[in-house]
Write a structure and sequence with these properties.
Blueprint: H1 18-26, H2 30-39, E1 50-55, E2 58-64, E3 69-74, H3 81-96, E4 100-105, H4 106-111, H5 113-122
Parallel strand pairs: 3-4
Antiparallel strand pairs: 1-2, 2-3
Length: about 130
Amino acid sequence: MRNVILKSGRINNLERLKTYRKELRLHQTPAEVTLWDRLRNSQLEGRKFRRQHSVGNYILDFYCTSEKLAVELDGKGHDESDQTEYDDERDSILSASGIKVLRFENRIVFDNSEWLLNEIKKNFGWGNK
């Protein structure tokens, strides 16, 4: 595996990724901006989501700490085989760290946002099942 998360005790929001996380927040995709408007301020069943939160070497689009749930929005670049392999490896590493990753295509945010939000809600409590 390319990256190992658990090399030290601290894995969330590593200092070395701070500038990059900030840059990503300042340059969100339209889909990220739209979904963030629905997730921010604990609007989704009172769950607090963070945007561009890092876990180990990975920066997650959205992350709910209490649910250990990551939401990733994917554009066309994620259809390429190299990117798909990287995403699969990344998701496996995050899963091994106890984080469930949900992936959605950017267009779903605009085409069917209520369905997307319901899919996220369906995964609340996933770790207790």
